[in-house]
Amino acid sequence: MPEPLPDALARVRDLVLDDQALVRALATGRRKGRTPAWRRVELRYVDLKAGRRLQVTRYDETQAHVSNHRDGATVLDELFAEPFGNWHVETTAQTLQLRVTKSGDAVVGVRARDAEDEPAREHDRPKTRMLPEDDPVLVALGISDQDGRVKPSRRAKYRQVEEFLRELRAALDDAIAAGRLSPSESDPLRVVDLGCGNAYLTFAAHAWLRRRGLAVRLVGVDVKEQSREHNTAVAERLGVADEVTFVRAGIDDVELDEAPHVVLALHACDTATDDALARAVEWAAPLVLAAPCCHKDISRQLREHPAPEPYSLLTRDGILRERFADTLTDALRAALLRARGYRVEVVEFVGSEHTHRNTLIRALATGASAGRAEEEYAELTGTWQVIPKLAELLGR
Question: Which fold does the domain 136-393 belong to in CATH?
Fold first, then answer.
Protein backbone atom coordinates (compact mmCIF):
# COMPACT_ATOMS: atom_id res chain seq x y z
CA MET A 1 0.00 0.00 0.00
CA PRO A 2 1.26 3.51 -0.78
CA GLU A 3 2.33 5.65 2.13
CA PRO A 4 3.34 9.32 2.43
CA LEU A 5 6.77 9.89 0.91
CA PRO A 6 8.15 11.78 3.97
CA ASP A 7 7.30 8.81 6.21
CA ALA A 8 8.97 6.37 3.80
CA LEU A 9 12.10 8.52 3.49
CA ALA A 10 12.27 8.68 7.29
CA ARG A 11 12.56 4.88 7.28
CA VAL A 12 15.35 5.09 4.70
CA ARG A 13 17.05 7.75 6.80
CA ASP A 14 17.07 5.59 9.93
CA LEU A 15 18.61 2.67 8.06
CA VAL A 16 21.28 4.73 6.29
CA LEU A 17 22.36 6.52 9.46
CA ASP A 18 22.95 3.22 11.27
CA ASP A 19 26.72 3.01 10.72
CA GLN A 20 26.88 -0.45 12.29
CA ALA A 21 24.34 -2.17 10.06
CA LEU A 22 24.32 -0.39 6.69
CA VAL A 23 25.84 -2.44 3.86
CA ARG A 24 25.01 0.01 1.09
CA ALA A 25 22.27 2.31 -0.15
CA LEU A 26 21.47 3.25 -3.73
CA ALA A 27 19.42 6.15 -5.15
CA THR A 28 18.39 5.92 -8.81
CA GLY A 29 15.74 6.93 -11.32
CA ARG A 30 13.66 10.06 -11.37
CA ARG A 31 10.20 11.23 -10.44
CA LYS A 32 7.52 12.22 -12.89
CA GLY A 33 8.51 15.42 -14.66
CA ARG A 34 11.70 15.92 -12.64
CA THR A 35 15.31 14.79 -13.04
CA PRO A 36 17.93 14.59 -10.26
CA ALA A 37 21.36 16.15 -10.66
CA TRP A 38 23.01 12.70 -10.61
CA ARG A 39 22.41 9.54 -12.58
CA ARG A 40 22.80 7.42 -9.42
CA VAL A 41 24.23 7.75 -5.93
CA GLU A 42 25.71 5.00 -3.74
CA LEU A 43 26.31 5.27 0.01
CA ARG A 44 28.31 3.13 2.45
CA TYR A 45 30.44 3.64 5.54
CA VAL A 46 34.24 3.63 5.48
CA ASP A 47 36.77 3.66 8.31
CA LEU A 48 39.37 6.41 7.97
CA LYS A 49 42.12 7.51 10.35
CA ALA A 50 39.79 10.28 11.47
CA GLY A 51 37.01 7.78 12.19
CA ARG A 52 34.02 6.27 10.46
CA ARG A 53 32.55 8.37 7.66
CA LEU A 54 29.60 8.08 5.28
CA GLN A 55 31.06 7.70 1.79
CA VAL A 56 28.89 9.08 -0.99
CA THR A 57 29.65 8.23 -4.62
CA ARG A 58 27.74 10.35 -7.11
CA TYR A 59 27.69 9.24 -10.75
CA ASP A 60 27.17 11.56 -13.69
CA GLU A 61 27.18 10.39 -17.29
CA THR A 62 30.92 9.73 -17.47
CA GLN A 63 32.53 9.43 -14.03
CA ALA A 64 32.15 8.92 -10.30
CA HIS A 65 32.58 11.66 -7.69
CA VAL A 66 33.48 10.37 -4.20
CA SER A 67 33.22 12.30 -0.92
CA ASN A 68 33.34 11.28 2.75
CA HIS A 69 31.16 12.93 5.40
CA ARG A 70 31.25 13.15 9.19
CA ASP A 71 27.69 14.50 9.26
CA GLY A 72 25.74 11.86 7.38
CA ALA A 73 22.39 13.43 8.26
CA THR A 74 23.13 16.65 6.42
CA VAL A 75 24.27 15.01 3.19
CA LEU A 76 21.32 12.62 3.35
CA ASP A 77 18.92 15.54 3.58
CA GLU A 78 20.55 17.00 0.48
CA LEU A 79 20.04 13.73 -1.38
CA PHE A 80 16.43 13.47 -0.24
CA ALA A 81 15.85 16.89 -1.80
CA GLU A 82 16.83 15.42 -5.18
CA PRO A 83 13.90 13.89 -7.11
CA PHE A 84 15.18 10.31 -7.16
CA GLY A 85 12.48 7.82 -8.05
CA ASN A 86 13.93 4.83 -6.20
CA TRP A 87 15.86 4.02 -3.05
CA HIS A 88 17.41 0.60 -2.40
CA VAL A 89 18.89 0.03 1.07
CA GLU A 90 20.72 -3.10 2.24
CA THR A 91 21.57 -3.67 5.89
CA THR A 92 22.95 -6.69 7.67
CA ALA A 93 19.40 -7.78 8.47
CA GLN A 94 17.09 -6.57 5.70
CA THR A 95 16.65 -5.05 2.26
CA LEU A 96 14.29 -2.11 1.74
CA GLN A 97 13.09 -0.94 -1.67
CA LEU A 98 11.26 2.37 -2.05
CA ARG A 99 9.58 3.48 -5.26
CA VAL A 100 7.99 6.90 -5.70
CA THR A 101 4.63 6.69 -7.48
CA LYS A 102 3.30 9.10 -10.11
CA SER A 103 1.11 10.66 -7.43
CA GLY A 104 4.15 11.39 -5.25
CA ASP A 105 3.51 8.73 -2.61
CA ALA A 106 5.85 5.83 -1.87
CA VAL A 107 5.53 2.08 -2.24
CA VAL A 108 7.91 0.31 0.14
CA GLY A 109 8.92 -3.34 0.21
CA VAL A 110 11.02 -4.91 2.97
CA ARG A 111 12.43 -8.40 3.10
CA ALA A 112 14.82 -10.13 5.45
CA ARG A 113 18.27 -10.90 4.09
CA ASP A 114 19.04 -14.59 3.65
CA ALA A 115 22.46 -14.17 5.22
CA GLU A 116 24.01 -11.37 7.19
CA ASP A 117 26.75 -9.53 5.35
CA GLU A 118 29.71 -8.00 7.11
CA PRO A 119 29.87 -4.46 5.72
CA ALA A 120 33.15 -3.59 3.99
CA ARG A 121 34.63 -0.51 5.67
CA GLU A 122 37.98 -0.25 3.89
CA HIS A 123 38.54 3.13 2.25
CA ASP A 124 40.94 1.93 -0.43
CA ARG A 125 39.41 -1.40 -1.28
CA PRO A 126 40.97 -3.47 -4.05
CA LYS A 127 38.71 -3.24 -7.08
CA THR A 128 36.11 -5.97 -6.89
CA ARG A 129 36.02 -8.08 -10.01
CA MET A 130 32.66 -8.94 -11.47
CA LEU A 131 34.14 -12.24 -12.61
CA PRO A 132 37.46 -13.32 -11.11
CA GLU A 133 40.18 -14.26 -13.56
CA ASP A 134 39.90 -17.96 -12.67
CA ASP A 135 36.15 -18.17 -13.31
CA PRO A 136 35.47 -21.31 -15.39
CA VAL A 137 33.61 -19.25 -17.97
CA LEU A 138 36.69 -17.14 -18.71
CA VAL A 139 38.82 -20.25 -19.05
CA ALA A 140 36.28 -21.91 -21.36
CA LEU A 141 36.13 -18.79 -23.54
CA GLY A 142 39.90 -18.62 -23.83
CA ILE A 143 40.18 -15.30 -22.00
CA SER A 144 42.06 -16.92 -19.11
CA ASP A 145 44.59 -19.73 -19.28
CA GLN A 146 44.30 -23.07 -17.52
CA ASP A 147 45.96 -21.59 -14.42
CA GLY A 148 43.18 -19.03 -14.11
CA ARG A 149 45.14 -15.99 -15.28
CA VAL A 150 43.95 -13.65 -18.01
CA LYS A 151 46.08 -14.06 -21.11
CA PRO A 152 48.07 -10.92 -21.99
CA SER A 153 46.53 -10.88 -25.46
CA ARG A 154 43.02 -11.01 -23.96
CA ARG A 155 43.29 -8.18 -21.41
CA ALA A 156 41.18 -5.83 -23.52
CA LYS A 157 38.44 -8.45 -23.88
CA TYR A 158 38.47 -9.09 -20.12
CA ARG A 159 38.16 -5.36 -19.46
CA GLN A 160 35.25 -5.16 -21.87
CA VAL A 161 33.51 -8.05 -20.10
CA GLU A 162 34.06 -6.46 -16.69
CA GLU A 163 32.75 -3.05 -17.68
CA PHE A 164 29.73 -4.50 -19.43
CA LEU A 165 28.85 -6.49 -16.30
CA ARG A 166 29.13 -3.33 -14.20
CA GLU A 167 26.62 -1.65 -16.48
CA LEU A 168 24.39 -4.71 -16.30
CA ARG A 169 24.55 -4.59 -12.50
CA ALA A 170 23.64 -0.90 -12.41
CA ALA A 171 20.76 -1.39 -14.84
CA LEU A 172 19.47 -4.44 -12.98
CA ASP A 173 19.63 -2.61 -9.65
CA ASP A 174 17.62 0.24 -11.18
CA ALA A 175 15.02 -2.13 -12.62
CA ILE A 176 14.59 -4.06 -9.36
CA ALA A 177 14.46 -0.89 -7.27
CA ALA A 178 11.83 0.54 -9.62
CA GLY A 179 9.73 -2.60 -9.26
CA ARG A 180 10.11 -3.52 -12.94
CA LEU A 181 11.86 -6.80 -12.23
CA SER A 182 11.44 -9.27 -9.37
CA PRO A 183 13.17 -12.50 -10.42
CA SER A 184 12.73 -15.58 -8.26
CA GLU A 185 13.22 -19.34 -8.45
CA SER A 186 9.60 -19.70 -9.57
CA ASP A 187 9.95 -16.91 -12.15
CA PRO A 188 13.56 -16.89 -13.41
CA LEU A 189 15.03 -13.84 -15.09
CA ARG A 190 14.54 -14.36 -18.83
CA VAL A 191 17.35 -12.86 -20.90
CA VAL A 192 17.84 -12.91 -24.67
CA ASP A 193 21.08 -11.92 -26.40
CA LEU A 194 20.32 -10.94 -29.99
CA GLY A 195 23.19 -11.37 -32.41
CA CYS A 196 25.29 -13.12 -29.79
CA GLY A 197 28.14 -14.24 -32.09
CA ASN A 198 30.66 -16.26 -30.06
CA ALA A 199 28.72 -15.37 -26.90
CA TYR A 200 31.53 -13.94 -24.77
CA LEU A 201 29.18 -11.51 -23.06
CA THR A 202 26.31 -14.00 -23.11
CA PHE A 203 28.19 -16.50 -20.97
CA ALA A 204 29.69 -13.76 -18.81
CA ALA A 205 26.25 -12.30 -18.10
CA HIS A 206 24.90 -15.70 -17.11
CA ALA A 207 27.87 -16.45 -14.87
CA TRP A 208 27.58 -13.12 -13.07
CA LEU A 209 23.80 -13.36 -12.65
CA ARG A 210 24.19 -16.81 -11.10
CA ARG A 211 26.95 -15.50 -8.81
CA ARG A 212 24.46 -12.90 -7.68
CA GLY A 213 22.11 -15.71 -6.73
CA LEU A 214 19.49 -15.10 -9.41
CA ALA A 215 17.62 -17.83 -11.22
CA VAL A 216 18.09 -17.13 -14.92
CA ARG A 217 17.23 -18.56 -18.32
CA LEU A 218 19.27 -17.09 -21.18
CA VAL A 219 18.80 -17.56 -24.91
CA GLY A 220 21.50 -16.57 -27.40
CA VAL A 221 20.36 -15.82 -30.95
CA ASP A 222 22.58 -15.68 -34.03
CA VAL A 223 22.00 -16.18 -37.72
CA LYS A 224 25.04 -18.47 -38.10
CA GLU A 225 24.66 -22.20 -37.48
CA GLN A 226 28.39 -22.35 -36.67
CA SER A 227 27.83 -19.96 -33.76
CA ARG A 228 24.93 -22.03 -32.44
CA GLU A 229 26.95 -25.24 -32.55
CA HIS A 230 30.05 -23.68 -30.98
CA ASN A 231 28.15 -21.93 -28.19
CA THR A 232 26.02 -24.98 -27.40
CA ALA A 233 29.20 -27.05 -27.02
CA VAL A 234 30.66 -24.46 -24.61
CA ALA A 235 27.43 -24.47 -22.57
CA GLU A 236 27.58 -28.26 -22.33
CA ARG A 237 31.23 -28.20 -21.22
CA LEU A 238 30.37 -25.66 -18.52
CA GLY A 239 27.35 -27.69 -17.39
CA VAL A 240 24.90 -24.84 -17.96
CA ALA A 241 23.08 -26.10 -21.05
CA ASP A 242 19.85 -26.31 -19.06
CA GLU A 243 20.00 -22.55 -18.42
CA VAL A 244 21.84 -21.18 -21.48
CA THR A 245 20.55 -22.23 -24.89
CA PHE A 246 21.26 -21.05 -28.42
CA VAL A 247 19.13 -20.86 -31.54
CA ARG A 248 19.91 -20.12 -35.16
CA ALA A 249 17.62 -17.30 -36.29
CA GLY A 250 17.55 -13.73 -37.42
CA ILE A 251 16.83 -10.99 -34.93
CA ASP A 252 13.65 -10.00 -36.73
CA ASP A 253 12.17 -13.51 -36.91
CA VAL A 254 13.31 -15.33 -33.76
CA GLU A 255 10.46 -16.82 -31.75
CA LEU A 256 10.74 -17.26 -27.98
CA ASP A 257 8.55 -19.37 -25.71
CA GLU A 258 8.06 -16.39 -23.38
CA ALA A 259 8.81 -12.69 -23.73
CA PRO A 260 12.16 -11.79 -22.15
CA HIS A 261 12.70 -9.54 -19.15
CA VAL A 262 16.09 -8.35 -20.45
CA VAL A 263 17.16 -7.84 -24.05
CA LEU A 264 20.87 -7.62 -24.90
CA ALA A 265 22.20 -6.56 -28.29
CA LEU A 266 25.93 -6.14 -28.15
CA HIS A 267 27.76 -4.92 -31.23
CA ALA A 268 25.00 -5.89 -33.65
CA CYS A 269 26.13 -4.20 -36.87
CA ASP A 270 24.35 -1.18 -38.36
CA THR A 271 20.55 -1.63 -38.52
CA ALA A 272 20.72 -4.98 -36.69
CA THR A 273 20.73 -2.85 -33.54
CA ASP A 274 17.47 -1.31 -34.74
CA ASP A 275 16.05 -4.80 -35.30
CA ALA A 276 16.95 -5.68 -31.72
CA LEU A 277 15.46 -2.50 -30.24
CA ALA A 278 12.27 -3.02 -32.22
CA ARG A 279 11.93 -6.59 -30.90
CA ALA A 280 12.51 -5.33 -27.36
CA VAL A 281 9.64 -2.85 -27.79
CA GLU A 282 7.48 -5.59 -29.34
CA TRP A 283 8.14 -7.82 -26.33
CA ALA A 284 7.63 -4.89 -23.93
CA ALA A 285 10.94 -5.89 -22.35
CA PRO A 286 11.46 -4.08 -19.03
CA LEU A 287 15.21 -3.69 -19.57
CA VAL A 288 17.31 -3.23 -22.72
CA LEU A 289 21.09 -2.96 -23.08
CA ALA A 290 22.36 -2.31 -26.61
CA ALA A 291 25.89 -1.51 -27.72
CA PRO A 292 25.62 -0.33 -31.34
CA CYS A 293 28.20 -1.14 -33.99
CA CYS A 294 28.49 0.81 -37.25
CA HIS A 295 25.96 3.43 -38.33
CA LYS A 296 26.07 3.03 -42.09
CA ASP A 297 22.39 3.67 -42.76
CA ILE A 298 22.26 7.24 -41.41
CA SER A 299 25.74 7.97 -42.79
CA ARG A 300 24.47 7.02 -46.25
CA GLN A 301 21.44 9.30 -45.87
CA LEU A 302 23.67 12.19 -44.82
CA ARG A 303 25.66 11.78 -48.02
CA GLU A 304 22.48 11.92 -50.10
CA HIS A 305 21.15 15.20 -48.69
CA PRO A 306 22.92 18.55 -48.28
CA ALA A 307 23.53 19.48 -44.68
CA PRO A 308 21.33 22.30 -43.32
CA GLU A 309 23.02 25.64 -42.81
CA PRO A 310 25.17 26.41 -40.94
CA TYR A 311 26.13 22.76 -40.27
CA SER A 312 27.80 21.74 -43.54
CA LEU A 313 31.18 21.52 -41.80
CA LEU A 314 29.86 18.59 -39.73
CA THR A 315 29.46 16.38 -42.79
CA ARG A 316 31.91 17.77 -45.36
CA ASP A 317 34.75 15.42 -44.37
CA GLY A 318 34.16 11.69 -44.33
CA ILE A 319 35.54 11.00 -40.87
CA LEU A 320 33.47 13.80 -39.32
CA ARG A 321 30.36 12.65 -41.17
CA GLU A 322 30.79 9.11 -39.85
CA ARG A 323 31.24 10.28 -36.28
CA PHE A 324 28.28 12.62 -36.55
CA ALA A 325 26.20 9.78 -38.00
CA ASP A 326 27.06 7.70 -34.93
CA THR A 327 25.81 10.44 -32.61
CA LEU A 328 22.72 11.27 -34.64
CA THR A 329 21.68 7.62 -35.00
CA ASP A 330 21.87 6.88 -31.30
CA ALA A 331 20.19 10.15 -30.36
CA LEU A 332 17.24 9.25 -32.60
CA ARG A 333 17.12 5.72 -31.20
CA ALA A 334 16.99 7.12 -27.68
CA ALA A 335 14.18 9.53 -28.63
CA LEU A 336 12.12 6.74 -30.18
CA LEU A 337 12.52 4.56 -27.09
CA ARG A 338 11.56 7.46 -24.81
CA ALA A 339 8.46 7.94 -26.92
CA ARG A 340 7.60 4.30 -26.14
CA GLY A 341 7.76 4.82 -22.38
CA TYR A 342 11.41 3.95 -21.70
CA ARG A 343 13.82 5.93 -19.56
CA VAL A 344 16.97 5.99 -21.68
CA GLU A 345 20.61 6.71 -20.90
CA VAL A 346 23.39 6.63 -23.48
CA VAL A 347 26.73 6.02 -21.77
CA GLU A 348 30.31 4.95 -22.44
CA PHE A 349 30.74 1.48 -21.01
CA VAL A 350 34.44 0.91 -21.69
CA GLY A 351 37.38 3.12 -22.59
CA SER A 352 38.06 3.81 -26.27
CA GLU A 353 41.50 2.25 -25.91
CA HIS A 354 39.77 -1.13 -25.55
CA THR A 355 37.18 -0.72 -28.30
CA HIS A 356 36.00 2.30 -30.28
CA ARG A 357 32.48 0.82 -30.30
CA ASN A 358 31.98 1.73 -26.67
CA THR A 359 28.56 3.38 -26.54
CA LEU A 360 25.80 1.65 -24.58
CA ILE A 361 22.09 2.42 -24.84
CA ARG A 362 20.47 1.51 -21.54
CA ALA A 363 16.67 1.61 -21.47
CA LEU A 364 14.29 0.87 -18.59
CA ALA A 365 10.55 0.62 -19.26
CA THR A 366 8.74 2.98 -16.91
CA GLY A 367 5.57 3.79 -18.82
CA ALA A 368 6.37 7.47 -18.42
CA SER A 369 4.99 10.01 -20.85
CA ALA A 370 7.10 10.82 -23.89
CA GLY A 371 7.63 14.42 -22.81
CA ARG A 372 9.39 16.28 -25.62
CA ALA A 373 10.79 13.09 -27.18
CA GLU A 374 8.34 13.14 -30.11
CA GLU A 375 8.93 16.82 -30.77
CA GLU A 376 12.71 16.50 -30.54
CA TYR A 377 12.64 13.49 -32.85
CA ALA A 378 10.59 15.37 -35.44
CA GLU A 379 12.92 18.37 -35.28
CA LEU A 380 16.05 16.27 -35.77
CA THR A 381 14.73 14.12 -38.61
CA GLY A 382 13.25 17.14 -40.35
CA THR A 383 16.41 19.19 -40.06
CA TRP A 384 18.73 16.46 -41.32
CA GLN A 385 16.28 14.77 -43.74
CA VAL A 386 16.88 11.28 -42.38
CA ILE A 387 14.60 8.40 -41.46
CA PRO A 388 16.16 5.95 -38.97
CA LYS A 389 15.51 2.26 -39.52
CA LEU A 390 14.07 1.92 -36.04
CA ALA A 391 11.28 4.36 -36.94
CA GLU A 392 10.30 2.17 -39.91
CA LEU A 393 10.35 -0.96 -37.76
CA LEU A 394 8.14 0.69 -35.15
CA GLY A 395 5.65 1.68 -37.83
CA ARG A 396 6.17 5.42 -37.75
Answer: Rossmann fold (3.40.50)
